[in-house]
Amino acid sequence: MTEVLSPDAKGIARAAALLSQGALVAIPTETVYGLAGDARSDQAVAAIYTAKGRPSFNPLIVHLAKTDQAALYAHVSDQARALMAAFWPGPLTLVLPLHDGAGLSPLVTAGLPSVALRQPAHRLAQALLTAFDGPLAAPSANPSGRVSSTTATHVLDGLSGRIAAVLDGGACTVGVESTIIGLADGPPRLLRPGGIGVEEIEGVLGQKLATAGEGITAPGQLASHYAPGAGVVLNATERPKGAIWVGFGPKCAGADLNLSVVGSLTDAACNLFDMLRKADALAGPGGQIAFAPVPRDGLGLAINDRLQRAAAPR
Ligand code: TXA
Ligand code: MG
């Protein structure tokens, strides 16, 4: 049985106690729900890979209570420091050179010489990290390759019975995962578009980001990801026959669902995974979901990235 914990002092204390015993707890963050375990425990981290059915070559993000804890686990460059000062706590993950003897389970980094770090902004995530008093490894709380979770109900749909508990913090406000920037080697690189726009990050660094080249992308960025049961097609400016049409903006008046009727990318990111799940339920087995075009600026880059992976051949 997976316990559902309330978003109060009692729920946080129970979540921290379970994590200290090496159990797994799904936790709300501002981006998506994370499936958290003690990042120092081989047993807890191995259990995360098992619960998700995640390939063990795909490393996890380590979540921190405080910005200055990054130096415990990684070598922090001036560029990393500038990005932390601008965007932490928040939806930004930095991949940095791993500190020798950092005390993290080697399973967290999948044996890489780098580590992904993030300080989440969510009130409950912060309270739990402080109560637990240690680093939490947390991938998105969904079975590997499937749609990410932005509510406790989504988490239970995919992982009920496989994890000890979920801390119910309601719906996530950002709705897409963190932006991942690689600073471990070479020029600063965009490894995954996410909750902070590339333009904002380039503004702080004062330079353009390199894009992920062959073989240096985040290992988890497999072509097919975020896959619902139904087929997905993109750039549908009208409803294809027999498909569930998910619109964006006021032009899509006849759509079954609309990511944002007023055309807000912030609202669309927040609604994305829930609408993907709803459209999947409406389309049914063997059905099809057709998404209207979404602009590619700001959060639109992350939304288009998730839609392309949802539509990729499986
Ligand atoms: O918003 C988020 O980032 C959420 C919340 C829970 O924090 N987490 C999340 O985790 O999206 P996950 O595991 O679904 O995605 C993490 C990505 C994967 O693509 C993984 O390959 C990449 O980060 N990653 C982790 N460590 C890395 C490293 N050392 N080098 C390159 N990529 C890394
Ligand atoms: Mg994920």
Could you provide a short overview of the structure?
With 314 residues, the chain is α/β, with parallel strands linked by helices. The chain has two domains: 3-211, DHBP synthase (Alpha-Beta Complex); 231-311, Rossmann fold. Helices cover 30% and strands 17% of the residues.
Secondary structure layout:
Blueprint: E1 3-5, H1 9-20, E2 25-27, E3 34-38, H2 42-52, E4 61-63, H3 70-73, H4 78-87, E5 92-97, E6 114-118, H5 123-132, E7 136-137, H6 152-159, E8 165-167, E9 179-182, E10 189-192, H7 198-205, E11 210-211, E12 231-233, E13 244-247, E14 257-258, H8 265-283, E15 288-291, H9 300-311
Parallel strand pairs: 1-8, 2-8, 4-6, 5-9, 10-11, 12-15, 13-14, 13-15
Antiparallel strand pairs: 2-3, 3-7, 4-7, 5-6, 9-10
Helix pairs in contact: 1-5
Threonylcarbamoyladenylate is lined by residues 29, 31-32, 34, 58-61, 91, 93, 95, 109, 112, 114-116, 118, 138-140, 177-178, 180, 191, 218-221.
Describe the structure.
This is Threonylcarbamoyl-AMP synthase. This protein folds into two domains: 3-211, DHBP synthase (Alpha-Beta Complex); 231-311, Threonylcarbamoyl-AMP synthase, C-terminal domain (Rossmann fold, 3-Layer(aba) Sandwich). The protein is 30% helix and 17% strand. The chain is built from nine helices and 15 strands. It has helices at residues 9-20, 42-52, 70-73, 78-87, 123-132, 152-159, 198-205, 265-283, 300-311, and strands at 3-5, 25-27, 34-38, 61-63, 92-97, 114-118, 136-137, 165-167, 179-182, 189-192, 210-211, 231-233, 244-247, 257-258, 288-291. The strands form two sheets. It has an eleven-stranded mixed beta sheet, with helices on both faces. A hairpin with a 6-residue loop joins strand 9 (179-182) and strand 10 (189-192). Helix 1 packs across helix 5 (123-132). The two termini are 31 Å apart. 51% of the residues are buried. The site of threonylcarbamoyladenylate (TXA) has 28 residues, from strand 5 and strand 6.
